[in-house]
Amino acid sequence: MAVDSDHERQTSDDEKNVGVDIPTQIEQAIGHGQLPPDPDAHLSEEERARIDRKLLWKLDLRLIPWLTLLYLASFLDRTNIGNAKIDGLITDLHMTPGQYNAALSIFFVSYSCFEPLTNILLKRFRPSVFLPATMILWGICMTTMGLVHNFSGLAAARWFLGLTEAGLFPGVNYYLSCWYKRSEFGIRAAIFFSAAAVAGSFGGLLAAAIAQMDGIGGKRGWAWIFILEGLATFLIGLASPWMVHDFPDDAKFLSPEDRARVIRRLKADKQSSAEHEQFKMEYFWAAVKDWKTWCFAIVYMGADGALYAFSLFLPTIISELGFTSTVANLLSVPPYAAAAILTISVGYFADRTRLRGWCNICVSLLGIIGFSMLLGSKKAGVKYAGTFLGALGIYPLIANTITWASNNIEGVYKRGIVLGFVIGWGNINGVVSSNIYIAKQAPDFKTGHGVVLGYMVVFLLGGSIVTHFLLVNENKKRAAGKRDHWIEGKSEAEIEKLGDKRPDFIYTT
Question: What Pfam families does UniProt report for this protein, alphabetically (predicted)?
Answer without folding.
Answer: MFS_1 (PF07690)
